[in-house]
Amino acid sequence: MVTPAHARELIVGVRQDPAFGPVALAGIGGTAAELHADTALALAPLTPARARALLLGLRHAPLLTGWRGAPPVAPQAAAAALCAVARCAAEHPEFAELEVNPLLVHPGGAIALDAHAVLRQPGSSYPDGN
User: Fold this and answer.
1) C-alpha closest to that of 85 among 22, 36, 29, 127
2) Nearest C-alpha neighbor of 81 from the set 123, 39, 109, 122
C-alpha cells in the first residue's frame, strides 16, 4: 500500500438526497471513520474555497494543518478531490452514492485508495430504491 510520510486519511463523498439533490460529505476517514464521526456536509457542487472550508472546519483539522510539528498536508489537493467527487455526482444523478475512503492526503498531494459507488434504481428518488 502507498504510505507517503505524514499522510492522513480522509473520506469524501456524495449522496443524492430526494429533497436537496447531491449532498457532499468530507471527514476524517479510513477504518476509524465511524469511530471519529468527524464529518461536514454541504450541497454539491462545491467551490474549492467551500471544500477547503469544510475540511478545515472538522474537529480533527489540526491533523491536516501540522499537528505537533508535522508538516501540513496539501489542503488544495483534498479540496480538489472533494470538488471532483461532488461535481461528478451533480453531473451524474444516476449515482445514488459516490465515496472515496480513504483519500490519503499528504504534504505532496492526495491519493484515492478506495472508491465505492451505488447506482440509483430506475424510477427511484431514494438511494435505497424506495
Assistant:
1) 22
2) 109
Cα distance between residue 27 and residue 79, in whole Å: 11
Q: Which set of grid coordinates corresponds to residue 83? A: 470538488
The model's confidence at residue 125, banded by pLDDT at 50, 70 and 90, is low
H and E: helices and strands count for the chain: 4, 6
Please tell me the distance from the alpha carbon of residue 12 to that of residue 87, in angstroms, as a whole number. 12
- Say whether 3 sits in a helix, a strand or coil: coil
Helix (H) or strand (E) holding 110: strand 109-112
Which CATH class name applies to 8-119? alpha beta
What pLDDT digit, counting tens, does each position of 45-60 carry? 999 999 999 999 999 9
Model-level pTM?
Answer: 0.89
| Rounded Cα distance, 21 and 32, in Å | 27
